[in-house]
Each structure stands twice: as C-alpha cells, then as structure tokens.
Design brief:
This protein has about 325 residues and is mostly helical. The chain has 3 domains: about 100 residues, no CATH class; about 70 residues, Tetratricopeptide repeat domain (Serine Threonine Protein Phosphatase 5, Tetratricopeptide repeat, Alpha Horseshoe), CATH 1.25.40; about 70 residues, no CATH class. It contains 15 helices and no strands. Helix 8 packs antiparallel against helix 9 and helix 10 crosses helix 11. The chain is elongated and about 75 Å long. The relative contact order is 0.05.
Length: about 325
C-alpha cells in the first residue's frame, strides 16, 4: 500500500485532507482565543497526519517563534511594559516572516490576531474612564484593538485619546488609520494630513494598515526614501497624489505659528545642512499648507508665487508635479 511518509519525493496531492484542514482551523481558532499551547497541540496532531503540508509547516514555525516570545512576556511584571513588548515582538515577527518566503495569509492573520489580542489584554487592565483616562494607554488600546481586528473599538479608544491630547501626531495618525478601516475616508484623510503636519517622526508608520496609506508609503519607498526621511516625505507625496486632499482653514493664531515655523526651518536649513534630508520635505509641506491658506483667504498672487519659487529651488521635481 502506498505510504506518502515513505515516498516523500513523490508529487504531493493537490488537496488537503479533511482532518488536517479541521485541525488547522481548530488551531487558528485557538490563537484567536489567545490559547497558543492549544494551537500548537492542534498543529502537532495535524503533523501526524501530513508532515509535508506547506501551510502547516509555516504555521508551526510561527508558533515556535511566538512560544519563545511569550516566555519572555511572562517574565515582565508591568502590564504596560508587557503590552509594549508584545507589539515590539510583532514588528520583529514581520522581519521573521520575510525570511520564511511568500507570506501565507491564514497563519499570518491568525498570529496577528493572537499578538494584538495579548497586547489588548495587557493594556485593558490599565484602562480608566473619563478624566482619569491616560491618553497613552488609550492610544495603545486603540492600536491593539485595530491589530486585533476590532476597528470600531479602536476608533472609540482613539477618539477618547484624541480628546485628552488633541495635538498628538501619533494619536491622530492611528485614528486616521482606524477611520479608513471603517470606511470614513474623509475624516481619515483630514487627520492623516494633520498628523504628518504636526510631527511625522511621532507617527508609527509600520503599524498603519489602510490601503490608501499603504500605497502612499510604497510610493515613497519607490522614490528611495527610507527611515526617518521617509516619514517626512509622506505628506509631500500625499499632497502630490491627492491622498491628503481634505483640508481645513487655519485659524489666525495657527497661521501665525505656521509662518514662524517656516521662518525657523528656513533659517536652520541655511545655517546648517546636516539635517537637510529632513528639513527639505518638512519645509515643502509647510509651504503647501501656507499656499492653501493664502488661496483660501484670496491673498495676493505674489505671495503664492514666492512660495512656489521656494519649492522649485528646493526640489524641481516636486514643483513640476505640484503645478501640473
């Protein structure tokens, strides 16, 4: 009788056995319930039926990786630190996945739900209501809820965080991302633009999930912008591609602060070129905001022309795309 365990070099059947599929589904359900050991037991049982199933082998490698990580989490007594560590491990896990070859959606999705579910559990015990709420805790609850797949809960936590800390780029960017995931596109675009104006370096780009932002980040990467420099170019390219198309009028005090910021950036750029890679895109983005302000207020065209010339001198490519 043919035994596929003895003849592993033979072509494998195209269909998976019902038993293996059932056990894989059972394992993924266990991960959703944050029961990693139960998931591993199901994987092991499936392996006894078919030790060559590609998805199974991929999932088992992921389970082993997270088993080691959870041992370390268990040794962290502070819940906030433990939650932060789990999210940090998710970033490391993505690098691990890149080494495994082509991603497999089902196991990746299951382990994502597991990781952010664990983080959510850690942060959840720290939550408080009303005036006693900590915006940093609410931010992390929002991130964890979003990663776990509960977008409505993520919006709730992040809106609460934004009320407590209105000008925090990290909170606004996460809220923008969550709005996009529940198809509130107009609010999403407005808040993304706001967040990257306030402080691009505060935005956790790696954890943003919306498809529009992913395409924007990919475009920036195609242009060869990486690391902290990439974060500064995102609002510039977002303006050129129409992603940051929802705008608001500035209050007089905001316009004054914007002009002061432009002056300070120009002065720094002229006196010290060491941060040019960051200053140029940041300054261009502020020119965009100031142009919009002048246009809304129907200011003299010469003011806009002056800013356009400054953009042209800083980056001719951006200038051509902007006026096209």
């Amino acid at each position: 009788m043919y035994n596929k365990k003895q003849f592993s070099g033979y072509p494998r059947p195209m269909t998976r056995s019902t038993g293996v599929e059932t056990l894989l589904t059972e394992a993924y359900d266990s991960l959703s319930a944050l029961r990693l050991e139960a998931a591993q037991a199901s994987f092991q049982s499936a392996l006894e039926e078919d030790f060559e199933d590609d998805e199974l082998l991929y999932a088992m490698k992921c389970a082993g990786w997270w088993s080691d990580s959870m041992d370390r989490v268990a040794g962290i007594p502070d819940a906030f630190e433990a939650g932060e560590y789990v999210i940090a491990r998710w970033r490391a896990f993505r690098l691990f996945l890149a080494k495994l070859g082509p991603a497999r959606d089902r196991p990746v999705s299951a382990f994502k739900q597991f990781a952010f579910g664990v983080a959510l559990e850690k942060f959840g015990g720290l939550a408080a209501d009303g005036e006693n709420a900590d915006p940093e805790v609410m931010l992390r609850l929002g991130k964890a809820s979003k990663g776990h797949g509960d977008y409505e809960a993520a919006v709730g936590h992040l809106e609460a965080a934004a009320k407590l800390k209105r000008d925090d780029a990290a909170i606004l960017a996460e809220l923008a991302d969550a709005y996009a995931l529940i198809d509130e596109q107009r609010a999403s675009k407005a808040l993304f633009r706001e967040a990257f104006y306030i402080n691009p370096q505060r935005v956790d780009v790696e954890l943003l999930e919306s498809s529009a932002f992913a395409r924007l980040a990919a475009k920036v990467s195609e242009l060869g912008k990486e690391g902290i420099e990439a974060a500064e170019w995102i609002p510039v390219i977002g303006e050129l591609l129409g992603v940051f198309s929802v705008k608001r009028e500035l209050k007089p005090v905001e316009a004054g602060k914007l002009k002061q910021s432009v002056y300070e950036l120009e002065t720094e750029l002229q006196s010290d070129g060491s941060r040019r890679a960051i200053l140029v895109p940041r300054l261009i983005n502020r020119y965009f905001w100031l142009i919009d302000h002048y246009m809304n207020r129907k200011e003299d065209k010469s003011k806009i022309d002056e800013l356009l010339l400054k953009i042209k001198l800083l980056d001719p490519f951006v200038y051509k795309q902007y006026i096209a």
